[in-house]
Design goal:
The protein has 389 residues and is α+β, with helices and mostly antiparallel strands. 62% of the residues lie in helices and 14% in strands.
């Protein structure tokens, strides 16, 4: 009997969980869709590369959407059961709140384990893999994007023209470059031959010119300077041509695992701002999985209600709590960055506040003590009834 009941409650929250998880993840993905479409349409990046970018972005989205979806699913599932008086029937049959909460606890533990794996392992690896894939795409775009007898402006501040490129694309001949990266002193570079050289460690692509000259005229058109060279390197700013992000030569805090973050914190001579950033990332990786357990605990007393008229209350309160949770998280991180609170307090405040509220509300609900303000709840109920009428 208990097994059937547990499976029944799990089924009630599993379908909303999957639907909400898909919707929230898609909404977050929409924030990157325009950039990805720009790569596909304007930058000549292939569909398979775009798909790989989407796959690599998923862990960073799921880290946030799994706890949010769990809370919404619990409120929707238990709200439906309580709204149809099924919770009342279960209690009348001698089933306590603690027994009703067992399948919810199982779902919260599964979400906790999934979020832990994603946050601690997949997110750092996917962030770093995204940077490497960005470099590979940029390298490929640099090699295939420069065509003979065509002016190319893919790279910031550079206009490149090649008179002749062999079929294998190994080099370019008759190269002309308009370099406007220094606005007060633009250059025109002419070279007989050029090669593309990539450095996977430094994540850079360099255009190496041979046997040419640079021509510079000052803004007042009074002075002209020419410099001949045997070899001249031009760094191609591949990062700004794609995502407008600075190229990073080492792992950022978001690309580090917990062990790497702890090792970074142990180094001496680091700036306080950088130490705070690393400490925030370390505590966030530990606190995000815990939010699944905290929100699961809070969702039980909030989901069990007796007002049949307040059917839309579940989704409304769920998103209000999610917004409040992440506002507390962002506010705490801001206080940490300014040095007003410690990283532990700043990143763990949402879990501490919501965890304390969940324990109090769960205990009062188990004792069937009313915790809702009667005046406020009466207003909400009357408005819901008018809305449904």
């Amino acid at each position: 009997m208990r097994r059937i009941l547990n499976l029944y409650i799990l089924r009630e929250i599993s379908l909303p969980f999957v639907m909400v998880l898909f919707i929230l993840t898609f909404v977050l993905l929409m924030g990157r869709i325009l950039q990805l479409m720009d790569l596909l349409v304007n930058k000549g990046v292939g569909f398979l590369d775009i798909s790989k970018f989407i796959v690599l972005l998923m862990p960073s989205f799921l880290m946030f959407t799994i706890p949010m979806s769990l809370l919404v699913a619990i409120l929707i599932g238990l709200g439906r059961l309580s709204g149809d008086n099924e919770i009342t029937v279960m209690k009348a049959s001698g089933i306590s709140l603690y027994q009703l909460s067992r399948p919810i606890a199982v779902a919260a533990v599964i979400a906790f384990i999934s979020t832990s794996i994603i946050t601690l392992f997949l997110v750092p690896q996917s962030n770093y893999a995204t940077k490497i894939h960005l470099y590979n795409v940029s390298k490929q775009k640099a090699s295939i994007g420069i065509r003979e007898k065509v002016f190319v402006d893919y790279f910031k501040g550079l206009l490149i023209y090649a008179e002749k490129i062999p079929l294998d694309g190994a080099f370019m001949e008759g190269v002309l470059i308009a370099d406007t990266r220094l606005t007060d002193e633009p250059n025109t570079i002419i070279a007989k031959k050029a090669y593309l050289i990539s450095d996977p460690r430094e994540l850079t692509v360099t255009l190496r010119l041979e046997n040419g000259s640079t021509h510079t005229v000052d803004p007042g058109l009074q002075n002209y300077r020419k410099m001949d060279f045997a070899v001249y390197d031009v760094n191609l700013d591949i990062g700004s041509s794609l995502f407008d992000e600075k190229k990073l030569k080492e792992k950022s805090s978001g690309e580090m695992t917990v062990l790497e973050l702890r090792e970074r914190l142990g180094k001496s001579g680091l700036e306080k701002q950088h130490l705070r950033e690393v400490a925030i990332e370390l505590n966030k990786k530990l606190s995000m999985p815990m939010s699944c357990l905290i929100l699961g605990l809070l969702g039980v007393p909030l989901g069990i209600r007796t007002q049949r008229s307040a059917k839309s209350w579940s989704i409304s309160i769920a998103f209000a709590l999610v917004v409040l949770y992440y506002m507390l998280q962002l506010g705490g991180e801001a206080l940490v960055q300014t040095g007003q609170v410690t990283p532990f307090i700043g990143t763990w405040v949402p879990n501490l506040v919501f965890g304390l509220a969940g324990v109090i509300l769960f205990s009062m609900t188990a004792k069937e003590t009313s915790w809702r303000p009667h005046f406020f709840w009466g207003i909400v109920s009357r408005r819901m009834q008018k809305h449904e009428e």
